[in-house]
Amino acid sequence: MTRALLLVNLGTPASARVDDVRRYLREFLGDPDVISLPAPLRWLLLEGVILRTRPKKSAEAYQKIWTERGSPLMFHSEDLAQQVRERVTPSTEVVLAMRYGEPSIARALQTLQSKKIEEICLFPLYPQYARASTKTVVDKVQLEANKLGYAVKVDTVPAFYDDDGYLDGYVVAAREILRSFQPDRVLLSFHGYPERYLREDGAGHCLQTSTCCDVVVNANRDCYLRQCKVTAAGLVSRLGLDEKNVVVCYQSRLRDTWVKPFTDDVVVAAAGAGVRKLLVFCPAFVADCLETLEEIELRAAADFRAHGGEELRLVPSLNSSPAWADTVVRLARSTTPSI
């Protein structure tokens, strides 16, 4: 049987120009798993409000992190895909796609169909499961395969939020920084998530008590919040951090009903409380991108200094490190052993 490993990350605009950013945001925010509103209301919000102002602001943010190789998320993902190709069997096709933008999932499937690939190991590059990340990738692959009439077997690599290789990758990236920088406080900043999604997906369990994440039951097995907390606990344990000086928080908020505490509030409060050196992990992102490089390393760092802090440092994402490529292949083989 011919097989392929399909790596999928979030996506990025084709350039940092306003028109390309607008095109990307239209696809991204038009996804009902990202903005969960009835289609007419979602269209009105997107076309009538968001796309009138946000593309210019987002383009300015992308311009700050754009490189000679283009988008950091794109080139880190491309480098990872190449590292993975060097580690899988010669008969395994390794293809990179983005959920939004190019290279698209539709194009990737067209390529695999033309090569008569019969089995796909789908690897959403999201450590924690969420409706607006993993689920939308799985649904999109199925939708585009159906459109093509492509009857291919697809097995999906599950969330790897507690995987030793994933956690150890951040430990390696952080250990020397912790030794030399000696931060007063450490933030574990995950991507934000609507509380409403947690309640809907948690079958009456999630967010009902302060201890609802402490025990795994069927209702919270795929809970994003629980998985973030497990990731955080794993990093704290491996790095020997003092829990009193660690804060788990959530960035990239859109509205006040998202999971708290918000990273931007925590950063300002830390500076106000006398914290001088702040170290930030972003363990929801396996490749550095707008959310890590602009939102944290640039914007949050500036806010921290403006409110009395001295220095904020960002722990790099896993990107395309050899150890991370090894982990990707191992996780893929746990789903599809013949890769």
Which descriptors would you attach to this protein?
8 strands; alpha/beta; 11 helices; 339 residues; four-stranded parallel sheet; Rossmann fold
Radius of gyration: 20 Å
The CATH topology of the largest domain is Rossmann fold
User: Beta-sheet strand percentage?
Assistant: 5-15%
Return the structural class: alpha/beta
Which CATH architecture of the largest domain is right?
Answer: 3-Layer(aba) Sandwich
Helix and strand pattern: EHHHEHEHEHEHHEHEHEH
Termini separation comes to 11 Å
Average pLDDT works out at 96
Describe it for me?
The chain is of the alpha/beta class and 339 residues long. The protein has two domains: 171 residues, 3-Layer(aba) Sandwich (Rossmann fold), CATH 3.40.50; 151 residues, 3-Layer(aba) Sandwich (Rossmann fold). 48% of the residues lie in helices and 15% in strands. The strands form two sheets. The chain has a four-stranded parallel sheet, sandwiched between helices. A four-stranded parallel sheet has the order 6-5-7-8, sandwiched between helices. The mean pLDDT is 96.
